[in-house]
């Protein structure tokens, strides 16, 4: 595997408001959608003329509250972690995770135990939404909430309560005990989404950063359909994948295959790698996938306290990897640099 090429993302003034810690990415033709790590706003970029997959500019904020009804108040964090664009719709998955109070460098040591005891359910993070896109002269855009797009309907989301994902898993023997544990403590944490059979809303794959169960990561396969502004959960199945102790940090479709960006479930610097599950983007997975059925695509370097791979997208020229806590040398004014990995033999 050769060294990656630098992919420059012009975030402009939005770098200060939406942040440079990126959790998710989806690309359709010449348009890129990004999920910053905080807040309730996505970013929309376009390929720079002549830059191909190495340069993206024209950043615009996409407030999710304009496109879909959200829980809580507009400033509540959605923690969007997974994005996918398929069949004219942008799918957005929030982490659904509880949150433990962060200890900051300036926190007095006598206050650390009290801060670490504070856990909030963060119901605003319980988001799974399908946002129809309308094509325009500069590519697809989301539409205002309640607006119908011909052939696609209006934006719809899964309920956040008993009829949603958390409600369906409350009594689950594997995941139920982890629902109220913060994501960074190996608790329940959605980090990736890949959608197949999307016209009728079926086949929504969610990758969990946690919990990892004795070394086995978890993928959820949801069958949903839209009824007006609501997504209805018809069925849910679990698939265990032996990622050798790592959790899912993002998912991406590569033809009929499913690519998994794998990394630690806890707050650790690595390891990180991209692996392939052959055929998993086209047909359902078995209940369990063993390590010898998982194909290594590439190991991904990480930094010390920085450069934690968090976003994965398949481009014609290679695999785009974006990072949480990017290293200082990835930041150049209003530009952020990701990595474009050129993978021999890709389908």
TrEMBL record:
A Pfam family: DUF3616
| Domain DUF3616, first and last residues per copy | 21-335
Q: Can you name this protein?
A: DUF3616 domain-containing protein
Source organism per UniProt: Actinomycetospora chlora
